[in-house]
Amino acid sequence: MSQKTLQTAIGMMSGTSLDGVDAALIRGDGEIITEFGPSIYLAYSPEQRQQIRALLNLVQEKGSAARGNDAVQQVERLITEHHVAAIETLLSENGVDASSIDVLGMHGQTVLHRPDEGWTWQIGDGDYLAEQTGIPVVDDFRSADMKAGGQGAPFAPLYHEALIGSAGLEAAAYPVVVVNIGGVANLTWVKPGEDVIGFDVGPGNAQMDDWAVDKLGASFDENGQLAANGKAEQAIVRQVIALPFFSENYPKSLDRLDFSLGPVVHLPAEDGMATLAAITVAGIMHGIDLLPEKPASLYICGGGRKNTHLMQLLEQASGLKPQPVDVLGWRGDMLEAELFGHLAIRSLKGLPLSLPSTTGARKAVTGGVLHHPPVKLSA
After folding, report:
1. How far apart are CA 219 and CA 256, in angstroms?
2. 48: closest CA among 14, 91, 88?
3. Those residues with Cβ within 8 angstroms of residue 207's Cβ, 6 or more apart along the chain or in another chain
4. Residues 69-78: pLDDT tens digits?
5. Region label for 232, one of left (φ > 0), alpha (ψ between -120 and 50) or beta (otherwise)
6. DSSP summary character for residue 365
7. What are the helix (H) ranges across the chain?
8. 8 A C-beta contact, residue 103 and residue 7
9. What is the pLDDT, as a whole number, of residue 89?
10. What pLDDT is attached to residue 1?
11. How many Cβ atoms sit within 10 Å of the Cβ of residue 232?
């Protein structure tokens, strides 16, 4: 297969924020993206979120021993069926025939990520998804990287680099840093002529969302309003940022469960949220401090870019004007879904999904597992 052959993929992401499944159609050759097609977000119901959250708690308690638990199979089927529904809705609402899609890229739901132990665990049934949609599926993107000594995360840097390269930025805009504030926060550093750098920097929205569920009965703190009405307890921020992770050099990665609400559980709702927001920003700034050169421009993706309070804190801390990636023409809500469509195409072509400078793998590594739909026998 020629590496320049264009292919059509739908990438899917069920993120650490546990909000739902994003699915986005892209077309490209594994190097550049030539077309951005329709996309969809299919939210989990409160009951589904509760089931997934309960599984995360179980896995946190039992670790890999939870693999045989019935709850894992139940939630995996729930998540996979939600992916099936997202694909079917995307295709039907946009008049796209399944036969025109070359591959689905399914990240699955991370239930535990333990790079220090050399393993990561995402659930989602690639065989079932391929069977139900009739489209080949690539999943299990991270395992090959970890077998090569990598952290298994983050995987966004190669996609960010491809998008930045086609954004037409002036030379003065570099180095560029793209910060993804999802459940966990990670960054990508791009400078022409230099290896792209990427690593996790700390908690993102996950703990703030958990706090919102507990204190507001809402899935997130809209516009950061609760945090804006509170006062961050700087002693707690310093206590968290003093954890060894933040001073470690990259590459490095995190699990959603590496941080908890424990440090703020005694605080009033507003102060707890303000403190969690301050921790997220402090982690990002510590990550930026580790880079070989400070950024000249700062772009934000993930749900955190819609948090007005977070964006203000970042501006104050960085001295830069953080801008949502949408100003570059990117689909800020769909980047991670697009990413796994892009990586699925790269996987089919044997191209690297990660680099030593993004995950710490010993060499550039391809990866992913391909699942073919069952062959239909003619009558």
Report:
1. 16
2. 14
3. 259, 260, 261, 276, 279
4. 899 999 999 9
5. beta
6. B
7. 46-62, 70-93, 126-133, 143-147, 157-165, 206-216, 225-228, 234-241, 244-247, 269-289, 308-318, 335-348, 356-359
8. yes
9. 98
10. 46
11. 22
For the chain, domains (ranges, CATH) are 7-152+365-371 (3.30.420.40), 157-328 (3.30.420.40)
Q: How confident is the model at residue 62 (pLDDT cuts 50, 70, 90)?
A: confident
The pLDDT value recorded for residue 256 is 81
Q: What is the pLDDT of residue 378?
A: 59
| Residue in the block written with tokens 């050399």 | 118
DSSP summary character for residue 207: H
Task: Map tokens 């002529």 to a residue.
Answer: 193
Dump the DSSP string for 117-177. Answer: GTEEEEE--HHHHHHHHSS-EEE--SHHHHHTT-------HHHHHHHHHTTT--GGG-SEE
User: Which DSSP state fits 326?
Assistant: G
d(CA 256, CA 239): 19
Which of 362, 363, 366, 338 lies closest to 352, judged by CA? 366
Cα–Cα nearest to 15, from 303, 246, 320? 303
DSSP state of 302: S
- The values of phi and psi at residue 142, to 5°, are -95, -20
| Tokens 């006062």, residue located | 231
How far apart are the C-alpha atoms of 345 and 352, rounded to whole Å?
11
Give me the pLDDT at residue 74, please. 96
| Segment 140-149, tens digit of pLDDT | 999 999 999 9
Per-residue CA distances from 81 to 20, 107, 124 (Å): 12, 14, 9
- DSSP 3-state of 378: coil
Regarding beta strands 323-324 and 297-301, do their DSSP bridges make them parallel or antiparallel, or are they unpaired?
A: parallel
- With 0-12 / 13-18 / 19 or more C-beta atoms within 10 angstroms meaning exposed / middle / buried, residue 375 is exposed
Backbone torsion region of residue 167, taken as left when φ is above 0, otherwise alpha when ψ lies between -120 and 50, otherwise beta: alpha
